[in-house]
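Late entry, evening session. Most of the bench is empty. Finally got around to the prediction I had been postponing all week. Sequence below, unchanged from the version circulated by S.P.
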Amino acid sequence: MFKSIKVACIFVGTYIGAGFATGREIVVFFGNSSPIILIFSCLISAILAMLFLILGSEFKSIVPTKGGKVMLTAFALATFVVYSAMLAGSNEIVGRGSTIIAIIVVIICTISKQGLTILNVAVIPFVLLLLIILATRLEIGIYEKGLFVQNAFAYSALNIFLGGFLIVPQGRTMPKKQVYLSGIIIFFLLCVLSLIVYFAVQTAIYSPMPLLQVASNLGLRQVAIVIIELAIITTMAGCFTALNGILGAISDGKWLNAGIILFLGLGFMNFGFENLVNYGYPIVSIVGLLYTISVLATFLINRKPKQSIPLLN
């Protein structure tokens, strides 16, 4: 049971970054869509998460056999865009303190291979609790929106490529029952978290940070700040762990790699949170979709274990 909860927290923690917690992602992908489409997106993500866990139990690597270097490069660049967005979002929320937070995350995740797990298992329950507190103050309205199914697939692709990448190692020791239980927990958590944010941001869709705007109007600004920063930390940790693993296949100096990732991220965060989400995330979504399709297709066609990159050892 705990194993399934741990896997769900790793996946969901990567899923709910600054874009999600501020409500900006939800507006970009579901601003004109019915909540039914959002629920469908959560279902797609949970099913794909289970598939990645199953792949983890059968294969050493999720790097496609054909065009693997190209896809891995695209994956790394997309992950870096998300990482930079986390840093930018944190900077807008807590100012100069964001750099200190980023350094702490780097240290925790570099010192221990369990750093990502520890952060996610500790943070996700608090994010859920704080969002529920916020939900008790909301006036839920009924909105007539379209059934834009493509948005569900696009949003799932945006998040699954990194979350799936990070939970693959967990699948190696998980029996099928635990995999299915993880999928159920992931679906439940994503639905609860996503629907609260979806209904909360309906009255502030033009704000750069809709959830923060709504919470401020309700006198819960500090609650929203904590929610956003905690969500940023989990995704920041996930992005950093993935990037550090990829760089580790090229260079053995883990602290040097960590410094490079942090330095470049702090530079690129100057593009601004809103710009990175509005213009970068749709591209990340396309990369995520192509990456997921290529991974699944590769292993359906050629079910032979491949050499793994250090992150997946």
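Two things to note before I forget:
The chain has one domain: 2-295+305-312.
The chain has 13 helices and no strands.
Will write this up properly tomorrow.
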